[in-house]
User: Fold this.
Amino acid sequence: MRQPVAILLALVVLAVLPTLAAWAGSPATVPLATRILIYGIAAASLNFALGYGGMISFGHAAFFGIGGYVVAILFTHWFNEAPIFGLIPGTNQLLITLPLAIVVSGLFAAAIGALSLRTGGVQFIMITLAFAQMLFFLFVSLKAYGGEDGLSMRRPDAFLGLNLRDRPTMYYLTLVITVLFFAGLRRLVRSSFGTVLDGIRQNERRMEALGIATYRHKLFAFILSGMGVGMAGALMANAMRYVSPDMMHWSRSGELMIMVILGGTGTLLGPLYGAAALLLLETWLAGWTEHWSLGEGLVLLAVVMFSRGGLIALLRRRT
Amino acid sequence: MILIIEQILNGLQYGVMLFLLAAGLTLIFGIMGVINLAHGSLYMVGAYAGTWFAALTGSFWLGLPAALIAAALAGAALELLVIRRLYHRSHLDQVLATFAIILIANESITLLFGRQPVFTLLPEAFSGSVELLPGLFYPAYRLLIIVAGLLVALGLSLLITRTRIGMLVRAGATNREMVRVMGVDIRMLYTAVFGLGALLAGLAGYLTGPISAVQVGMGEHILLPAFVVVVIGGTGSIRGAFVAGITLGVIDTCLRAFLPDLLNLMMPVAQADALGLGISSMGIYLLMAIVLLIRPKGLFPVGAT
Amino acid sequence: MSAVLEVSGLVKRFGGLVATDHVTLDVQAGEIHALIGPNGAGKSTLINQLSGEIAPDAGTIRLLGRDVTHEPAHARVRLGLGRTFQVTSLLDECTVSESVALAVQAHAGGNLKLWDRAANRTPVRTRTEALLAGTALEPRAAMRAADLSHGERKQLELVMALALEPKLMLLDEPMAGLGHVESGEMIEVLRGLRARAGVLLVEHDMDAVFALADRISVLVYGQIVASGSVEEIRENPEVRAAYLGGEDELC
Assistant:
């Protein structure tokens, strides 16, 4: 019964964070916390495929970028009052762009997953990477949407009359979505599908012998995972008011994997802790030296080499 | 016509570069089962060490052994300190640990040499051009790279097919247990193979110096194409790495050279350039996806009868 | 009696090697049909073709009268095939009851439900408890599969297969590695199977084969060289020469 208490406590702290930040005179904490929550959603979504489903995808940043670009492209067309292909009007309504970003990411995940899941092992890692690279270069070459320079949004999307440009407001919106997301993910993991997926991760051949069409189930999980990452990308586009092909760069996929490992693969909240740990470490090291990625590399190496099960395992061992 | 031959030669030169990297990667993967993302860092180490020593001594040729030794030492150290602990870990751990090595290597090089690209001096004897065909002048240095790459390929294939080490390497790629049973010190073999792979990467890194700038991040630039070569060629197969390396080198170079002009027939220059570049960058990945879907183990799968 | 499994003219080649050479056999409902043969005779290759993990080069496989030659493994399971593996293949992180529950759930369906609580599916739980009740595994229900003894793992695999209510069971060496007492228990369990399903039993343990089988087929170099009742096979000189060899191997 200790865990619910701890989570409640954490929620209270998160709820008053902007006030605390204002009081402590460090307003930069709020956008940082927003980014942590968004990356937490992305990493936890990746973890659904990677940790729960056993699919080591090295291309999930693609869905992050897709989600972001859906928002930014729709916004640009709305702003310029120029329908896409002269047919589809753009929009700045979050209630439309966010679900659409999720759906489009899901479609991409369906296509990429359907092809990639025909392979396995290293080939799966490499083919997911290949598809992400293709999308990366595709967006680099799309001059109409900024090419390499990316696409800025004059304003964030509109949502129920809230001013999302206001950092605490954006933070609270993200927080609410994060809480709903993790509640949903918890339910998903414990559902009939989640149980089957766990079985597939442990022993695919066994599940096939139980009459489970493993390919179809893995593909379904891959799609759900891509949708989650896409949602995170859409939120990121709103929080940063900027998207670029960089969101799909392969090192971004690597970072998402790092967050998962850092926090603990196959755990519910681990990726969120991992996102927090990585971003805080980056921020802290960056404030200290311009060669911060050296420190990050060393910490990461130490974590992979010497810890099993990530931060979650450390916490559990202590309590 | 001359333009096409020239680009094919350029592709050949890029192809042997890819091969030099992919050869090490594919051996390391085939024999030890390790995905080594840090292979590009060894390429970078070779380039920096060689260039530095060449600048110090004023001789391109003295830089060469320096590059090879530095890369091989860095590779051996990497194997002893890190990779050795990863043999029995999941691919995920391997990917992340070697990803961390990239961060460390890049930042260390930045600390030592700064962020500015450095340039390797061209060996004087090879600074000119050679008239290959009437009207076709081609830089002698690039020809040197092609010849060097082909010689290395020949040497490697002799090493693999004719020597005891090569026999062990082949046996190891097909059946790791078998080598163990034969009572070979597998650790020594692993370190040796890793050192050899590193040496080849260092060679590629140094040779590429006079053509493109030596800079932080150069390793990652060629790492992914090299991985594509490994996967398309079939992991563990030197022959596959050679065939796929040359093919991809030529295809990639020709796409980059000719696609924008082709697209330009259909659309304005600026758009054609961007789109052409984008599609040609996608080309090798598209090819890999297609190959994997048709032949999931690559073109020359190791261990197949 | 009706045939639950009919195999005819099955061929599988690996390069130059013919691993399955025009195999024709059938399994009737309620019978135990044993398949014996020396190591390397192609028994596992045959089992894997029947289960759908390897595609045959020629011939047909009919399950309950339906041609399943080109159906994937999971589809055959859905039609009524259950199997155990030569080397036990379990969900090592799951407990015994979780493993059985998963098998029950897989059979019951609803495996794509995203919003239910798997642990709260009462029919699944009831059936799981019923399957485990009275077996040697019942006291081990909360133990992880990885921590079970070898014999218990074999039993768990069998219970998981039974959860699928199969009409045909493919058992790949269920006695392998079992001690004397465990063997005796396993023979009793298998004898009880006869009432529920047709069984194709691949086994090296001749005591078990002679104790259980209604019919025996002998596979040598991918070919069925003899087929008949226990007595016929015992007395068949060709079988003795080709497979059973010396007297000592007979028991």
